[in-house]
Amino acid sequence: MSTAVADHLLARKDAVLERLMALLRLPSVSTDPAYAEGMAATRNFLTARLRELGLQKVQLLDGGGQPAVYGEWLGAPGQPTIIIYGHYDVQPPDPLDRWVTPPFEPAIRDGRLYARGASDVKGSTLIAVETVGAFLAAEGKCPVNVKLFLEGEEETGSPSIRRIIERHRDLLAADAMLSADGGRASTSLPTLNTGSRGLCKLEVTLRSAGKDMHSGRYGGAVRNALHEMARLVASQHDAQGRIQVAGFDEDAAPLTERDRADAAALAGDEAAFYASTGALPHGDPAYGVRERVTLRPTIDVNGLWGGYTGAGSKTVIPAEAQAKITARLVPGQDPDRARDCIVAHLRSHCPEGVELFFSPPGGNSPSATLPEGHPLLVAAEAVVRETQGRDPVRARIGGTLPITGIFREMLGIDTLMFGFAMPDEDVHAPNEFFRLSSLEEGLRAWPLLLSRIGQSSAADFAPWRHATQA
Amino acid sequence: MSTAVADHLLARKDAVLERLMALLRLPSVSTDPAYAEGMAATRNFLTARLRELGLQKVQLLDGGGQPAVYGEWLGAPGQPTIIIYGHYDVQPPDPLDRWVTPPFEPAIRDGRLYARGASDVKGSTLIAVETVGAFLAAEGKCPVNVKLFLEGEEETGSPSIRRIIERHRDLLAADAMLSADGGRASTSLPTLNTGSRGLCKLEVTLRSAGKDMHSGRYGGAVRNALHEMARLVASQHDAQGRIQVAGFDEDAAPLTERDRADAAALAGDEAAFYASTGALPHGDPAYGVRERVTLRPTIDVNGLWGGYTGAGSKTVIPAEAQAKITARLVPGQDPDRARDCIVAHLRSHCPEGVELFFSPPGGNSPSATLPEGHPLLVAAEAVVRETQGRDPVRARIGGTLPITGIFREMLGIDTLMFGFAMPDEDVHAPNEFFRLSSLEEGLRAWPLLLSRIGQSSAADFAPWRHATQA
Prior knowledge:
The structure is a homodimer. By secondary structure, the first copy, chain A, is an alpha+beta fold. Chain A has helices at 4-11, 13-25, 36-53, 118-139, 161-167, 215-218, 225-235, 257-265, 270-275, 289-294, 335-348, 375-388, 402-411, 436-453, 458-461; strands at 56-61, 68-73, 81-87, 107-109, 112-114, 145-151, 176-179, 191-196, 198-207, 213-214, 298-307, 316-317, 320-329, 355-358, 368-369, 393-397, 415-417, 433-435. At the A-B interface, strand 9, strand 10, helix 6, helix 7 and helix 10 of A face strand 9, strand 10, helix 6, helix 7 and helix 10 of B. Chains A, B: This is Dipeptidase. Chains A, B: GO terms for molecular function: metal ion binding; peptidase activity.
């Protein structure tokens, strides 16, 4: 593969770093309206840069929330059209007093660039943007058609992304998506993200009486909603943490030998994994820790409440208890069926007369997987081999990337995550940083990746496209 | 027994009713500072009345909160000295729009006097006060020495009662206490309250990790504080509601034949008992419903919370969960030991590494019982026989009356509850009422009771006095 564009970029990496620092100086906190000015300034910075690099149709795509920044280059007819995804918003910087240097004053120490958003994900986003610009500057063209899509509300759960896509379905038509988000899984091994867990959610309200009761008058002769909720929650797992919900994981794809080998390669330092949160090891002993958190489904109660929760005591027998539950899903599991299994389990374990009410289904995401043989996967593995001298370990993300599911559902395309963040870079925390070495690696790898994808035609992607929902 | 004083009182019952209505017009809501004026006006009304009736040392006893109203008559040397307890504060009247007539404008309909505080407990309190006055008016003396003690913060949990007693220990020295609070247990049978359940409280914080975790990163491999708390709560009872806490009810006095017969007589309409709250029958099948709610101990989780409880979902694995627990106790159970049993149970059911933190012990009350043969019990049973033509059914209160325990602990005296409220009078609710027939019954019975107690001497009470804590 020609390294000409990569060389062109790397020769200018100081300028890229300066631009990244300028971008990091703009406080684009999407969760807090106080930062509206920083958000707008960031959009201005990006649209100006996209125009400067020679992209066309540079514009803001508005879905009623924070608009996405868009720009395209479609000068390669017959070649694949690739959406390049990044996001320009960042997490709030609090707690401010724990930062060694201020969050929006980028500072370099020991080969690390410290700033809010450096790792998540302005660093990798700028690598992708500059790569496109370098092709246009050095060669006057890109190996693929490019649609840059830089979201502004990833950190707030992408509330308007569906409306943005809906309103700009034609503009966003593409063969596949490359994401600058979803970083690397290891600081020591070359890895490639090939998928993420899905999610299903439910809220359950349990009612054991028409109203709260006084324990002096009723205590001993009535059901207590919190006792009943506790029994239901406890029934979902055994003492080892194995899920006891009938049917729930029946469709979960069994782990392949490759899955287990990849998980073993990424097992890492389990003691450090637990020590970082003071958590206690737990879960199905048939699987290793890395397998449990990436390749196996889970059910977690995320919130539970009922009765009196104020100061002091109140001798009430609560009539109602509530719980928020989410499940992480793996390939093979249908989110609606997973939810139905949980609902059925809770209903079947609920004593007669105790009522359960469930939130309407919605907001679920299936697990995402880049299938074996997909041109993006083939290209990316080749690039990792070339740049790092060995096959990448395939990693799956234990979390859920709703974007991936939404683009697949609405535009029929799969996503390859090709971000350069590392797992230890304190994203969402004080002193977030991005390695300067990662910047360099990204500037080398992204041009190679686009070149490699350009060796396929648009037609090569056709068999991999999914049906979209109307 | 002479009915002269009762006859004197009953001949003036219209005037008593008018005074009760005047008292009910004063909005003495102790829980809400907005009613400070109503509280003060009520104290003025009562101190004026006590002086008018010829009581001495009429004064306010201040413990830093709402003062108690006090007055005494000690003109019967050698006779027993009896504290007569009532309370002048009432519950808030909300929801106001559900009252047929305004809560502080007493109204008579169908032989019932509607007003906030009519049943709880200004009606019975005034009966007691007027009884003392009638003795002094009709006979120039009382059959016993009387210390009227009218509390002003019963509805707020008596926060300063201990300080009041502490500051006025000598003034309050007595042989026993008669309470106008703690009404009758049945609308159809003569009953006598002989005791109440005790209470112990604890709060438990469970910690399974140093901080909340993201279920995408940790889900499947760590303990979830809410799952662990649910298992602990569920472990306290079996599916029938039988307590599973080792040792907890070991010291509970077994039910006697008389206990069971009294409970059976008061079983009442169980369907109506449950229908009133929409609750589901539950609990130890070895005991009847009335037994379960008055004669057997309970453990109830009154509040439980942890994790994310706001709108929408948050994929957090909570590191901490909290629960408030109270237990109702019966004769034989020591509150500290009961609490220790619950703590030991939770600790022994808690997986290694999961931490439990308990609130410091405090605010516990033992179960109260007026012992067989106590002069107050003997006198009261005789009065019920005389006025109602049959032996009363002995009833125990399922709730806890901290006053009883505090007077026993601090002054060494037992309490007989001799209130005339009925269990269906909507106390603490809109349209609270007191039966005019109950007013008449009270005005007849209280003089007889004081006369009957006057047949004992102070010396007769000596064996029944308890040691007090220094």
